[in-house]
Amino acid sequence: MRFTQVLCGTASAVVLVGLGASSAAQAQESDVQTVDSIIVTAQKREQNLQDVPVVVTAVGAKLLQDTGVKDIKDLTILTPGLTVTSTSSEASTTARVRGVGTVGDNPGLESSVGVVIDGVYRPRNGVGFGDLGEMERIEVLKGPQGTLFGKNTSAGVINVMTKEPEFGFGANAELTFGNYDAKGASASVTGPLFEDKLAGRLYVAARQRDGYNDVVTGAGPSKRDQDADQNFYTVRGQLLFIPDDKSTFRVIADYSRRDENCCGAVQIRTGPTSAILAAVSGQATPVAATADPFDRVAYSNRGAPAKIEDKGISLQGDIDLPFGSLTSISAIRNWRTDNGQDSDFSTADITYRNKDGSNYSEFTTYTQELRLAGRSDKFDWLVGAFLADERLENRANFYFGNHYEQYLGRLLSRSATNPAGVANFIALLLNRAPNTSFAPGQGLRDRYDQRATTVALFTNDTWHVTDAFEITAGLRYTSEKKKLDTYQTNTDGGVGCGTALTPAGQARIASIVGAANTGTIIGNLCLPWANALFNGRGTKQERTDKEWSGTVKASYRFSPEVFSYASFARGYKGGGFNLDRTQSSNGLPSGGTGVTPIYDTSFPAEFVDSYELGLKNTLFNRTVLLNISGFYQKFTDFQLNTFLGTSFVVRSIPEVTSKGVDADFLWFTPVRGLTVQSGFTYAETKYGDQPIPNDPGNALALLPGSRLSLAPKYSTSGSLTYETPVGDNMKARFNIGAKYSSSYNTGSDLFPPKVQKSYTVVNGRVGLGSADERWTMELWAQNLLNEKYMQVAFNGPLQGSSGLSATQKTYNAALDTITYDAFLGAPRTYGLTLRSKF
């Protein structure tokens, strides 16, 4: 809080100075903008967008500012085919391109869409999502980009470039106020530190906001009545050293921290278990007939506190040699998230995770990339090497609440009212005193330590066959080794499950419920977090992947205005280990739900073969860009992380295909100051028709032949920006942007209640300021029309059954008793921003 107050005060002073120092000079009329000004680095060298045989959506600094983009999540409104969602915390933010991405909260699963910030690869999407500071541009590269950007880019890359230090003095300040009591401030300064050799840039920002959601806490212990708030600050410092005309060195150091409460879920459908939750807790629950999830009322007695820290330093050196240029990028980064969670998403005290230092994920990553590039009359060549050393510490806790034993007992007694009059069915089954089999505050504490080392060699070369015809070939060899040490503990030894697993325990249960039901009863008494067979269990696993990936592209320029290309790319995403408790499908002699721990939790690498045809057109004196491409992608061993109601499990799906069309349009209109930008993606992204292997109970029976979750068939975006003089020394600027997505399912199991209907999000901004931008005032709104939509829907843990089974392989709504929860998209926000620039 103190940091925010100081920063707000500093920014206020700078803004006021800017208001007083506004220049009265007329703004200089700029030359007519053309497509030639759009430069990208999709092939690790600067090129005009229209010369690159890759589908790239490039967004410059001004449009990023106009549309209020502070982090990568905000970028979705400008990029068709890009979907970004957050679930249980901001740390679990994931991106998808053309309907393909990584699902769920499992740190052992790497990203399908890579995030690169200032040349430094981020190991997971959640690690790369935060306030990015002063951005130069963002490029979204669609399709596999593994040849140049490395592993875990099988679906695409989000390439972010921030502004570097300048040798001319400059300063900026910004103050923002909005609804939900939002307030934010940022300030930056850049300039020379030593003659024309050393320059620096410093950026600081802080943002706070009340929560979007109201929270009913019941009997607590949490008393926090809001969720999805914001409390964030960041600092980024840079040095640019140019010792001579042949070498440049850039150092970037940054630190950011979040202390927030995110993310509570609302109920979108209330099942019959809601009555049991109310009975054991004495607390109100949503009523299916009247509750509107978009009233934004979450039910949570434990809260969802989260602390996220991200810090790192990088050094980039660029040296001109007689035969080419050498680039070196060295970086070390550390990212940690500590979370708490009400894991049953209700006011009953069933299960929870505690933010007590024993529930966190921490990545420490060192990366080194070397590139040597050169060119001749006929060839552009590039060779390089990449090294990464990643250490992951994952600590997990999961505890029984005060109502766990009563709730589980009522579920197993098959009656919400328990007409037999048994006060505690678990005590009866196990012949133990009440609330001692699953005592409140007991549960699991697990440790997962993973180390991954990666070494890669790559080349990407272009042969200029003629002035119009080029062939590009790229190849990458990656060797990756992962080691995992696991130690799992039940704080009470798993006494309830352990009692049930004894011969005497099984016999007693059979005498009460019958032999046919014994397996199912024991399976529920030995859910992963309660399973005594995990207690004191340590494992060591290791896997090595050695894979080739690459690309071949042919391009032909029919004229200075028309560029065409065809490409093939082979992408690769590393295998890994499931960092959660995993049980067999049949571990009891009597059959039923299995409880035997699985030793080998590894899953194989994912591969994609991608084909693309593209046409890039530059029209009307190079003021119009119209690009269109068709694509076909086939994934094998697709890594699907799915929540089974009790744990996350990574499954290898034999086949996924994605085919469709991308289109981009940009028009610098004859009306001075008016720019129109739009894009369109049609993506038919489906699972293969093969049955899902290793799917006990047919939990994923709806997947074969169906569209992937979070994969809209159609998405389109558009932005209109207009800037015009006002009087002699002022100007106004208007921007409106919109993103449409067709309907899609938000759940990895594709149950129909999780479908999100088509929706459109609209953002708008109106600004007025001095012509030299010394001061600017802006009114803005995000989600202007207050569109209501879900990000992700999921099954309430231990709250009903879908009805799917070994015999019931199709969805039947009459058999579905699940309570469904969802994380919602942000509501309408609006406010005022004041800017000053020197």
Please give a structural write-up.
10% of the residues lie in helices and 50% in strands. With 838 residues, it is mainly beta. The protein has one domain (39-402, 440-494, 530-837): Maltoporin, Chain A, CATH 2.40.170.20. β28 (537-559) and β29 form a beta hairpin. α4 packs antiparallel against α5 and α8 crosses α9.
Q: What is the topological layout?
A:
Blueprint (H helix, E strand, L loop, with lengths): L1 H19 L18 E2 L6 E2 L7 E5 H6 L15 E4 L8 E4 L2 E2 L11 E5 L2 E3 L12 E8 L3 H4 L6 E7 L7 E9 L3 E13 L3 E12 L3 E4 L9 E2 L2 E15 L2 E15 L4 E4 L3 H9 L15 E3 L5 E17 L2 E16 L1 E2 L8 E3 L6 E16 L3 E22 L3 H9 L12 H6 L12 E22 L4 E22 L4 H7 L1 H11 L1 H11 L11 E23 L2 E12 L2 E2 L24 E2 L2 E14 L4 E20 L4 E21 L5 E14 L26 E13 L3 E12 L2 E2 L9 E2 L2 E12 L4 E8 L7 E6 L24 E5 L4 E9 L1
Parallel strand pairs: 7-10, 14-19
Antiparallel strand pairs: 1-2, 3-9, 4-5, 5-6, 7-8, 9-10, 11-12, 11-44, 12-13, 13-16, 14-15, 16-17, 17-20, 18-43, 20-21, 21-24, 22-23, 23-25, 24-25, 25-26, 26-27, 27-28, 28-29, 29-32, 30-31, 32-33, 33-34, 34-35, 35-36, 36-37, 37-40, 38-39, 40-41, 41-44, 42-43
Please give a handful of descriptors for the protein shown.
Beta-barrel_TonB_sf, single chain, 50% strand, 9 helices, cell outer membrane, Maltoporin, Chain A, transmembrane beta strand, 838 residues, mainly beta, five-stranded mixed beta sheet, transmembrane, signal, 22-stranded antiparallel barrel, globular
In short:
This protein has 9 helices and 44 strands. It has 838 residues and is mostly beta strands.
